[in-house]
Design goal:
The protein is of the alpha+beta class. Helix content is 56%, strand content 12%. The strands form two sheets. It has a four-stranded antiparallel β-sheet, sandwiched between helices. A four-stranded antiparallel β-sheet has the order 5-8-6-7, with helices on both faces. The N and C termini lie far apart (54 Å).
């Protein structure tokens, strides 16, 4: 084990630290589940490297916040900021525990890799070969997302990370690319980048009903926990108690799912040849539940009426992957059409994570994690997540 990195106080922008922590936490969630899906030690090692980076970020953020607090009023205003810092670290720790399921070869049923593709868009780590045709080309030149549906969500260059690289980012030999997209596109891009064929994981059936239920519960818990994190940052950015309340509802639902998951896992243990092979599944469930708890911590200041400190809202807004809120205007391109029919995610690259629909005296209705069939109407408020370029495209559709 490497010696811990020494950290000393140095003046730093809390806003920039928080933005980097948000981006790192979200990338860690993606990478950790992808490591399980692929059974990849290499991806799991990237998780542990990022987890160590997060430890340094949170220490620097805490030091800066302590230096900024000089009165009881300061303490009251900065307490929710410390909560956001602590929550990001908790997500990081949970992701590290998920990665260790792979690295330490803790038991995990093969059927996990059958169910996770439905919940995880394929994410692969690829090292750029010296002779790759991508070398010295910008992402704009290659136009990967349009041609293949694959997006490079991060690049590790030596010890530095480029989160959510843009069209101007130039690829270099030995860059480690984190690719996300459909399997066919991944196969093409991986082969071009590495000069090696992409080895796809074949699905495996569980064969035991209780085990299938347990795995399905993990997938649902994962989806709810990720949504809770997205909504939590949205509640902070827009200082919305309604969105924060939805985070609390999701966290409670994940807790209930965790109880059912444990029961199904224990039943399945009586029917498998080696019950120890389910240890990893248990750890996966506990870590997933930790992520939903962290989401609640992010939104706790809003829930308790403390409001959002401006530095947190600005950090969320300025992170590499932004959360936006738009109102669908009557007669706009999205008025009266479903998300799937208009191919909003394909056209803009933005994922609509929630829709608030005003419903008069009875209050507003929320559609959480809307699907392709969700129809939008004039006056609907949508929360969406993606790149700044994608946000501009989406804004054009709702206007």
């Amino acid at each position: 084990m490497d010696a811990p990195v020494e950290v000393e106080y140095e003046p730093a922008s809390v806003k920039e630290l928080l933005a980097e922590m948000k981006d790192t936490a979200e990338l860690l969630i993606d990478l950790s589940y992808s490591a399980v899906l692929l059974g990849s030690d290499e991806v799991a090692e990237e998780v542990l490297a990022l987890e160590e980076r997060m430890d340094v970020l949170q220490l620097r953020a805490r030091m800066s916040l302590l230096m900024a607090s000089r009165s009881t009023d300061d303490a009251e205003q900065l307490a929710p900021v410390l909560g956001v810092v602590g929550a990001a670290e908790k997500i990081s720790d949970a992701a590290g525990d998920i990665a260790k399921v792979v690295i330490e070869e803790i038991g995990l049923p093969d059927a996990m890799r059958t169910a996770l593709p439905d919940a995880v868009e394929t994410l692969v780590r690829a090292t750029v070969h010296d002779d790759s045709e991508y070398v010295d080309w910008t992402l704009g030149d290659i136009n990967l997302e349009t041609e293949t549906g694959v997006r490079i969500i991060a690049i590790r260059r030596g010890g530095d990370w480029l989160m959510n690289p843009d069209r101007e980012t130039r690829i270099r030999a030995d860059d480690v690319l984190l690719l996300r997209g459909p399997n066919d596109g991944i196969s093409t891009v991986y082969a071009t980048a590495t000069r090696e064929a992409y080895d796809r994981t074949e699905p495996v059936e569980a064969g035991i009903d209780d085990l299938e239920r347990a795995v399905d519960s993990i997938v649902l818990m994962k989806n709810m926990s990720e949504l809770a994190v997205d909504l939590a940052y949205g509640s902070v950015l827009f200082d919305s108690e309604d969105v924060a309340a939805e985070v609390a509802e999701l966290e409670a639902e994940v807790d209930a799912l965790q109880s059912r998951f444990e029961a199904w896992t224990l039943r399945a243990a009586a029917r498998v040849d080696d019950p120890v092979s389910l240890r990893g599944l248990v750890q996966l469930g506990a870590s997933t539940e930790e992520i939903s708890d962290a989401a609640l911590e992010i939104s706790e200041g809003v829930l308790r009426g403390l409001g959002t400190h401006p530095v947190v809202a600005e950090a969320v807004l300025e992170s590499d992957e932004v959360i936006v809120r738009f109102t669908v205007e009557p007669n706009s391109e999205l008025d009266g059409v479903s998300l799937g029919a208009r191919e909003v995610k394909t056209e803009t690259g933005m994922r609509v994570i929630a829709v608030r629909r005003p419903s008069g005296e009875t209050g507003d209705d929320w559609v959480i994690s809307p699907g392709p069939e969700t129809e939008l109407r004039g006056g609907d408020v949508i929360l969406a997540k993606g790149t700044r370029t994608g946000a501009e495209r989406l804004e054009a559709l709702v206007s």
